[in-house]
Amino acid sequence: MFKKKLQKFDHKTLIKCLQAEDELQQELFQLARQIKEEVFGKKIWFRGIIEFSNICQNNCFYCGIRKGNKKLERFKVSKEEILDCLKFIDKANYGSVVYQSGELISEIFKKYLLEIVKTTHKKYPQLGITVSCGEQDFNFLKKLKQAGAIRYLLRIETSNPELYANLHPEKMSWEKRFGCLKSLQKLDYQVGTGVMVGLPGQTIEDLIRDLKFFVDNKFDMFGIGPYVIHKDTPLGKDAKIQNWWQENKEKNFNIFLNFLAILRILLPNVNIAAATACDVFDSSGRIKVLQVAGNVIMPSVTPKDCRDKYLLYQNKPNIDEGADKSFKCILNKIKKAGLEPVFGEQGNSPFYYKHN
Ligand code: 5AD
């Protein structure tokens, strides 16, 4: 069996499993599923995600809401609308909310975010609050935590600083991002990170490095998705990359599923979310993730009129629907797949309680 070999980070086995197809892939999935079910059973926890602003100061080469994308109309969801979103989350009994936005470090932005978190915690003290608003300074993260946030998501995007440098403008630094993850751990957040799989220039060795990085740094949660091209970005405008992406997207999605299965085998009791980007390739992409490795789903609660403006990548699914439809749709799929939706629970990472 390859379980022990994977756990020992046997290089050949990792490569074989990352590239697994057909029978070997089924064997890998089976093992990941079994390990997941030993910890979580068939349960799936919900977080309602509110993408409350697409204003961003950064210029990541892959991302559709990058500052340099002048074609995009920018929005910020008002406090009143956020209260409506919270009402929905409360009614649907999701158990958790995620506040996500582009990255801004202005005082106005910080004040707004802090207020939202405070209000949420006051009105709905049982709700698990996750924030995902990019790199923020230690003091502000501390204030957010005091205001009621318990989890923070910040993807490292890739564990390879060189690849990171190829995908970001010079003023963004891998070390600074890593430092921010360390601050979050110091502040006792449940800390989530992740990467994109299938990035241009990313090798199998990079993915192995990512897995090692995840294990070594004791993260509690993971949001990992396939890279999806966006035409209004530097990567998307490059004809060579476009062709490469089209030709390799299916193969890379397979590698992505294998990557998550291996991650689950390496870290049985962390939270793994099924990213929306999975549904770009296959309308049951998220379900596939939940069947193999994931235990968390984050249906969008973003106001309907903002959804088509929060496009990190092309062909984002479900942008014409409201929170209610997103909920019913994914709930049906979850039940059909024989999984058990959980309501009214925060669904915190068991791994966090082990190392804290
Ligand atoms: N394809 C897939 N994921 C993307 N993200 C940004 N742009 C893309 C893209 N083109 C991801 C990044 C970021 C998260 C919020 O969205 O990993 O951290």
Which labels suit this protein?
356 residues; TIM Barrel; 11-stranded parallel sheet; 15 helices; 11 strands; binds 5'-deoxyadenosine
Describe this protein's structure.
It is a single chain. With 356 residues, this protein is α/β, with parallel strands linked by helices. The chain has a single domain (3-348), classed as Aldolase class I (TIM Barrel, Alpha-Beta Barrel), CATH 3.20.20.70. 48% of the residues lie in helices and 13% in strands. The protein has helices spanning 3-7, 11-18, 22-40, 79-92, 107-123, 138-147, 161-167, 174-186, 204-216, 234-237, 239-266, 285-292, 304-307, 323-336, 350-355, and strands at residues 43-46, 48-53, 96-101, 128-132, 151-153, 190-193, 196-197, 221-226, 271-274, 296-297, 340-342. Strands 1, 2, 3, 4, 5, 6, 7, 8, 9, 10 and 11 form an 11-stranded parallel sheet that branches. Helix 3 crosses helix 11 (239-266) and helix 5 (107-123) packs parallel to helix 6 (138-147). The longest helix has 28 residues, at 239-266.
Summarize the SSE layout with pairings.
Elements: H1 3-7, H2 11-18, H3 22-40, E1 43-46, E2 48-53, H4 79-92, E3 96-101, H5 107-123, E4 128-132, H6 138-147, E5 151-153, H7 161-167, H8 174-186, E6 190-193, E7 196-197, H9 204-216, E8 221-226, H10 234-237, H11 239-266, E9 271-274, H12 285-292, E10 296-297, H13 304-307, H14 323-336, E11 340-342, H15 350-355
Parallel strand pairs: 1-10, 1-11, 2-3, 3-4, 4-5, 5-6, 6-8, 7-8, 8-9, 9-10
Helix pairs in contact: 3-11, 5-6, 9-11
Bound molecules: 5'-deoxyadenosine.
Number of strands: 11
Q: In which range does the helix fraction lie? A: 40-55%
Relative strand content: 5-15%
Sheet/helix structural class: alpha/beta
* Secondary structure tally, helices: 15
Spans with pLDDT under 50 lasting ≥5 residues? none
